Amino acid sequence: MDILITTLRILFGIFFAFAGIMHFIKPKVFNRFIPNFLPKLAVNYIAGLLELVIGIGLLINQTTKQAALAMFILMLIFLPIHIWDVFREKPAIGSKKIAIIRVPLQFLLLYIAYLIYIY
User: Fold this and answer.
1) DSSP three-state, residue 14
2) Residue limits of the Methylamine utilisation protein MauE domain (predicted)?
3) Per-residue pLDDT tens over the stretch 8-38
């Protein structure tokens, strides 16, 4: 189990760090996911910074548990946005099919964060 958790931790660490950086490089891509009543640029940069910090935290042994907990909380916060996207006329993710598939994937991410946290 150790090798699986270590692999997941490294993969998700890289993924989150990359996603966080992309929030700063291509903020317009992420703006579609942010509801109009929120300040898009601020929310985008905050989410990007959180993802970057979580990604780096997952890659450092001493901060893995805190980063996994933060990943879990962030994915929980993002869950309503992904559900909301399913019911939009034109989902931000692209198609209805992808938007629908993304919701169970969010639960998978929550489970992976949980696994990393407990091991």
Assistant:
1) helix
2) 1-82
3) 999 999 999 999 999 999 999 999 999 999 9
